[in-house]
């Protein structure tokens, strides 16, 4: 930016995250709008033992498997739409954990907290589970649309509305923080189940 040294970011691409909430809305008609997914999930106490791997177009980071396709595993007659909604939200958090673990391995930088943005950060159930499955706090800023805010900041710096990036840092404020509440044993158990489910999605499409 300007005469400042270039700054690089490490990105992890996930094929389906927020779009996963659109699937039960548009394809199954389980909810009327995306925000209803949390209310539907809260009609149950947990995922009922199911996992939802949304490999609708394969799996991106850290697997890069074009042969994978979406699966819901662990189904029994006990399962109904609330459990599917819960498992869909969990799937987002599991995928984020896998990407962050890959980033930690590549960078050698340990994750101490996760700052989040976008429309999904207003889903308290998802944010709490994200903190639980990561074992670190999840932090939501007051302005959650970071992409639009970044564009505005860049324009403001260019026109002199703000004088330095330090001015921008002073604008950042916390809206809410979710602390991890899950025990390490439960975290390990749930994540192990997710990894088993991911394996079931492999080799579905013949190369």
Compute the CA-based radius of gyration.
Answer: 19 Å
Q: List low-pLDDT spans.
A: none
**Straight-line distance between termini:** 44 Å
Percent range of helical residues? 40-55%
DSSP E strands, number: 5
Walk me through the structure.
The protein is mainly α and 207 residues long. The chain has seven helices and five strands. It has helices at 19-26, 36-41, 81-107, 124-134, 146-159, 165-171, 184-200, and strands at residues 51-53, 71-73, 114-115, 138-141, 174-178. The strands form two sheets. A three-stranded mixed beta sheet has the order 3-4-5. A two-stranded antiparallel ribbon has the order 1-2. The N and C termini lie far apart (44 Å). The mean pLDDT is 94.
Record keyword descriptors for this entry:
43% helix; 207 residues; globular; mainly alpha; 3-stranded mixed β-sheet; 7 helices; two-stranded antiparallel sheet
What is the secondary structure topology, with strand pairs?
Layout: H1 19-26, H2 36-41, E1 51-53, E2 71-73, H3 81-107, E3 114-115, H4 124-134, E4 138-141, H5 146-159, H6 165-171, E5 174-178, H7 184-200
Parallel strand pairs: 3-4
Antiparallel strand pairs: 1-2, 4-5
Helix pairs in contact: 3-4
Structure in a nutshell:
With 207 residues, the chain is mainly alpha-helical.
